[in-house]
Amino acid sequence: MEESVNATIRQYLLADPPRHFRRVRLKGKMNLMAVGAKRYSAELKRDAVAMVAELVTQGSAEWAAMTKAADLLGVTSAETVRQWVRKTPTAVSAAAVDTGEEIRRLRKANAELKRANGILKAASAFFAAEIDRPHR
Predict the structure, then answer these.
(1) What is the pTM of this model?
(2) Most distant CA pair in the chain: distance in Å?
(3) Which of 27, 41, 66, 114 could form a disulfide with 81 if both were Cys (CB 3.0 to 4.6 A apart)?
């Protein structure tokens, strides 16, 4: 029932859209789009996502990278770039892979240091016992 109501409303709006909307054809269907809304090319979106990924790997905070990319590419807001980054799994995974590799490397180094620390504790206990033992 609700679906038919939505379809009826959609048909009505497409037939006579409000002043602040216009009819556009997206993926073969007629839809409404706000008049002030900008459409960005797929190439610009890819460039923005790649730029954010590169800035993040260079050490920038994610939001700062999105803001800088938006300013450089002339995108209206950093929120738009954020949405593109969230919809693109490769940008997130590239930064996550670098972070994941770094975490693995640090965990391995941490385990090695814990082993060395255990050996040093055992050696210090052995030599402390040697010093405390009476000599003949």
Answers:
(1) 0.44
(2) 108
(3) 66
33 and 65 in a single domain? The answer is no
Residues 106 and 51 placed together within one structural domain of the fold: yes
- The distance of Cα 30 from the centroid of its chain, to the nearest Å, equals 32
Q: Looking at the structure, do residues 66 and 17 belong to the same domain, yes or no? A: no
DSSP structural state of residue 36: T
What phi and psi, each to the nearest 5 degrees, are found at residue 75? -80, 145
Question: Which residues partner with 32 through β-bridges?
Answer: 23
Q: Which domain holds residue 19?
A: 1-37
d(Cα 25, Cα 36) in Å, to the nearest integer? Answer: 16
Q: Are residues 134 and 79 in the same domain?
A: yes
CA distance 7 to 2: 9
Helix (H) or strand (E) holding 21: strand 21-26
Count of structural domains, the chain: 2
